[in-house]
Backbone:
């Protein structure tokens, strides 16, 4: 799977150079030339971000602080000069590294690759592998089958999280509703059957094993 990199700099020549370099090295690229555009493009969930600090409208520090609410990938600041106090501020708002301009593009490429490897190792350690095909990341609240993410609603994942963390234990519809929804939610436990049906439909579409088993008259359980 190709890594996706977001390149942000108000100098279009630098953006063009980096875009060409990373595409030549097998990356999918997204580009932005100002802070506002960077915030919008970050919603595409890149795997890594190269972010210029000194931009005229919204600077890189502010961009980093804003996107850290919904972006967890490594962010590398690009800057012409940097003081220790600036580094401390940058790390405090969510930066992972600094690249000083002018930079060696090959060194930059090596640093990007190193950050991606480190990030991949951290993500893999957060995943629980149930077999050679199924992995659930409880931190990111996502499920993968054969390396592909299966799109789930918040409640669908909540049901999967509850059952998969208690393999073999049977939960009634009422207990699932109590734990995944809450006492103050509108509705009742009858919605559980519909959510289970949707989960099974998504599993079937992905040609997955049906991990949720019905225990007739009692409830549901997760099986290996």
Residues:
């Amino acid at each position: 799977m190709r890594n996706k990199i977001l390149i942000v700099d108000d100098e279009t020549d630098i953006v063009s150079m980096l875009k060409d370099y990373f595409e030549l090295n097998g990356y999918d690229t997204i580009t932005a030339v100002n802070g506002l555009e960077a915030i919008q493009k970050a919603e595409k969930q890149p795997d890594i971000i190269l972010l210029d600090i000194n931009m005229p409208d919204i600077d890189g520090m502010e961009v980093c602080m804003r996107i850290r609410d919904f972006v967890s990938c490594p962010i590398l600041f690009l800057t012409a000069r940097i003081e220790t106090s600036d580094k401390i501020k940058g790390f405090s708002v969510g930066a992972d590294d600094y690249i000083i301009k002018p930079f060696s593009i090959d060194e930059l490429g090596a640093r990007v690759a190193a950050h991606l490897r480190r990030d991949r190792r951290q993500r893999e350690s957060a995943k629980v592998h149930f077999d050679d095909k199924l992995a659930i990341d409880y931190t990111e609240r996502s499920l993968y089958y054969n390396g592909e993410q299966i799109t789930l609603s918040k409640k669908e994942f909540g049901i999967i999280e509850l059952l998969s963390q208690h393999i073999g234990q049977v939960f009634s519809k009422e207990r699932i509703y109590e734990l995944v929804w809450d006492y103050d939610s509108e509705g009742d436990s009858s919605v559980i059957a519909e959510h289970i049906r949707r989960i099974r439909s998504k599993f079937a579409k992905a040609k997955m094993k049906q991990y949720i088993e019905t225990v007739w008259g009692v409830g549901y359980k997760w099986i290996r």
About this structure: The chain has a mean pLDDT of 89. Residues 4-125 form a domain with the Rossmann fold fold (CATH 3.40.50.2300). Residues 105-126 form the longest helix (22 residues).
